[in-house]
Write a structure and sequence with these properties.
mainly alpha, about 190 residues, coiled coil
Length: about 190
Amino acid sequence: MQTQCSKCIHYQNDIEGLQQELHRLRTSNIRSQGQLEKRYKEKLNSLSLELSLLKDLSKEYDRYKIDSENYTREMNAVLIEAKSKLEILQNKLGTLEYENSKLTRRCSELEDILFILEEQRKSNVNTFLSDPLSYSNNNPIPENSNYNRFNNELYTEDSIENSLQLKHKKKIGLLNLDTSSDTSTIDSPK
């Protein structure tokens, strides 16, 4: 009977040891579970924060994308308008170059005429100074002209020079009138 009691005591000790081990494991498990829950909550909070940041970044990207599309549309409209204005300016430049070439030719012609008139004037002055009577007989002054003032003036070189300059200016004025009428009908290039 004693051996049975000693066995019972031995079993009782084993049971108590196992109960203590079980209690220790439960306590350890509870601690581990608490630590796991804490880590899980921390990770969950971290992931929630990252998700919130990603959502903000996504919204910002969407706004940027919309702004970029609007800017691209505006820039395309500006470029189209600038291109059309450039074409208009190129057409105007072509027209102006054409008109400029016509005016340059006309100016060259007028310079040639002016040179001829100047040579003719010098020749007339020299002829008049060398033989005033012969010049007057060969070149009568019309009654209605501004040259009637010669009738009462001395035939000095200065008065003749002034009169010829006046005549020259009138001719140039008439030529300028012809030039202005020509330039008003300038055709544009085709």
